[in-house]
Amino acid sequence: xxxxxxxxxxxxxxxxxxxxxxxxxxxxxxxxxxxxxxxxxxxxxxxxxxxxxxxxxxxxxxxxxxxxxxxxxxxxxxxxxxxxxxxxxxxxxxxxxxxxxxxxxxxxxxxxxxxxxxxxxxxxxxxxxxxxxxxxxxxxxxxxxxxxxxxxxxxxxxxxxxxxxxxxxxxxxxxxxxxxxxxxxxxxxxxxxxxxxxxxxxxxxxxxxxxxxxxxxxxxxxxxxxxxxxxxxxxxxxxxxxxxxxxxxxxxxxxxxxxxxxxxxxxxxxxxxxxxxxxxxxxxxxxxxxxxxxxxxxxxxxxxxxxxxxxxxxxxxxxxxxxxxxxxxxxxxxxxxxxxxxxxxxxxxxxxxxxxxxxxxxxxxxxxxxxxxxxxxxxxxxxxxxxxxxxxxxxxxxxxxxxxxxxxxxxxxxxxxxxxxxxxxxxxxxxxxxxxxxxxxxxxxxxxxxxxxxxxxxxxxxxxxxxxxxxxxxxxxxxxxxxxxxxxxxxxxxxxxxxxxxxxxxxxxxxxxxxxxxxxxxxxxxxxxxxxxxxxxxxxxxxxxxxxxxxxx
Amino acid sequence: xxxxxxxxxxxxxxxxxxxxxxxxxxxxxxxxxxxxxxxxxxxxxxxxxxxxxxxxxxxxxxxxxxxxxxxxxxxxxxxxxxxxxxxxxxxxxxxxxxxxxxxxxxxxxxxxxxxxxxxxxxxxxxxxxxxxxxxxxxxxxxxxxxxxxxxxxxxxxxxxxxxxxxxxxxxxxxxxxxxxxxxxxxxxxxxxxxxxxxxxxxxxxxxxxxxxxxxxxxxxxxxxxxxxxxxxxxxxxxxxxxxxxxxxxxxxxxxxxxxxxxxxxxxxxxxxxxxxxxxxxxxxxxxxxxxxxxxxxxxxxxxxxxxxxxxxxxxxxxxxxxxxxxxxxxxxxxxxxxxxxxxxxxxxxxxxxxxxxxxxxxxxxxxxxxxxxxxxxxxxxxxxxxxxxxxxxxxxxxxx
Lengths: 553, 400
What we know:
The complex is a heterodimer of chains A (553) and B (400).
Chain A: H1 7-18, H2 20-23, H3 72-81, H4 95-98, E1 122-133, E2 145-155, E3 164-170, H5 171-184, H6 198-203, H7 206-226, H8 234-241, H9 254-270, H10 282-286, H11 295-310, H12 322-376, H13 380-464, H14 470-547
Antiparallel strand pairs in A: 1-2, 2-3
Helix pairs in contact in A: 1-13, 9-11, 9-13, 12-13, 13-14
Chain B: E1 26-36, E2 43-52, E3 61-67, H1 68-81, H2 97-100, H3 103-121, H4 130-137, H5 140-150, H6 157-174, H7 187-238, H8 240-319, H9 323-390, H10 393-399
Antiparallel strand pairs in B: 1-2, 2-3
Helix pairs in contact in B: 3-8, 6-8, 7-8, 8-9
GO molecular function (chain B): phosphatidylinositol binding
Protein name (chain B): Sorting nexin 1
Pfam families (chain B): PX, Vps5
């Protein structure tokens, strides 16, 4: 779910060039070393900082035995290349050693999606936003515009008849895709699509907003691409490969279509939760089925009878599956805890940031002091003090950079928590699918029983009349037909419900496993990073402690 | 809290336990702060323990109780008597914090007072002071009497600067008829003055950031604690081996929080306070600079005055006035005053030159110690952090 790129290195480069330090020229010897004062043979403040890329450690940081001995290869390289330089403050992130050396092929790094297995590879890139004019139907001349994005897919999935695809899509298409998937894959933990962000689009700078959206789209599609079931969906395939307007014909599964309508009906009646993926338009529900069955008419009648009998009160969904309820509660608790940790993690990052900043400012202050004392020095004691200060300043500045780099890495690790909060939303939606499917079943069962009791009543009344009651008999026959149809619908609904339950179960298993693996990676990455940078800081300050050990009491 | 080693560069001071016979020593420690009184009247008293073999002190050890205003009295008297010597600085007189009297504030003040008195005790001239002896030996009632006699006469060194500026504008305009203030035209001294003024600015900035750094440590500590708690809760939720891993991580985070709070305190007492002390010392030097300027101005005034007096005297001689004798007596007096003011000024100059060299050396040592403490503390903290996190790795390995 996140890429462990070497951002640490790039960022360090950026920071260094902005650093005031680089422009402060401190590399002149303050005075000829005649009075036995310390001479500065090397200068950490060289005006052109050299970024030496230190190759990855051969030793696995996990096996590093004692903290004192950490990164031996680094220090030996440093002594060859350049004595105390910033080089050892700039290095590849600790994660690159640790994480799978396999390429990051899908944006999701969960271990279950190993790319080396054949026929399972799919990578999606979103790029090149273009402004396009809104076409026909615009009454206003020179009317509105929208953005399209180039969606590039690399894959070896057999469902795709090719290895590389390019299409242009606009955000509206993504909304459509998301809606279709939600309809077809009920019960699955479907990744949440990016927000429409209407307010932001007006308020933000356009290119910032477009870039933000591009990133969000790439992430979203990436999540779809690693979902074991959704990556193979027709909807996704069409989205990625078929140019032009998003048609996405409805699924031909009549029963599920109808039952979708049935699902929405009770909700519409009882004002329940809105269906994931978009508003349910009444027109959708009313469209006649391909099979030409009169299910819809039945449901219209159902609606009537329901309104008549129950007066628009919501029937309770009786969820009897205790295990499910327990699991649901547990997941809610989990969501809460993840949210807490995410917040505290943000706070932790901020505090590290502040620490680094203040440390840097302290270093800068000492740099200025050093310069001042060196320039104004009359006594040797001043020169000695300036030299001490310089060491401290160097260390403080270095430490400040280390904090910044540490944070850049920490943020990436802890991002995983935030992602799982998104997953929890998907879980909730999947559970809603289940609940509404159950509601449908129960509604139909209840309807059946009311139909049957009506038949009974009619039969009883009709039997009292000698020779039968033709109108009543006809009515009874109609009702029996309705019962038959409703019975079939009920069976359909039950099958759907069971299907969704099964999806829930499988997805829960997948979630547990992936979460376990993802969190484990996250923890390891976090811990290794914190430890590694702490060790670097320890080394930095150890040097100064040694240099000033003469003053120790 | 062992203050015996903080005697700085004084050469006469040695450990009282030293076997060498009768090398003169004078060491003082300020300990055992105790809150006295109530409400607005409340103050802190300190035990001042003197160990010495100076003959004037009549005894190897003496313990007295002193309060902050007693130290102020001593500082003011020394400032008056030993012009030209950089009197060690005192911690600020706080008006607000005093009411809260937090443990930290008390400790900071105690340490600063201890440093103050020991600097005096190890200064070859100041240690001879009668006032110091009074301070170290007199009982509390005598001290109180001495204190109340002197209030209002001696002002804070910083006030001298203001007085100097005020007087300077008055005197130079009226008496000497000049626009510019009377100042030495000594380029080296000018340079030194500039150095002192600029140094104060630089140091103040460094001290500001040092203080902030202490705060950051506290904040990070708190954050680690909160983070740890949240992680532990998540661990409980997850259950199984991963849950345990989370719980342990949370526990480590909480443990590190304590380390950070400790380092914050260490940083405050052993790095930030010495820096603050440095700033105060520079301010004290500024007061001496003002004194020197005063002495110079005074001498110049008298030198000018005596010129006029000579003219007057000659006038009277020519006129054979009866006032001649008196005028001659006045003239002689004035001459003596001029000599005296010259002597005083030159003493200050001489002392300042010695003092500045001593000051620079002292500060190099003081800062060296402070830097060492900073580096040690940070290194130690970083190592603890690294160890704590690394210790989790085997458990995390076991989980997968």
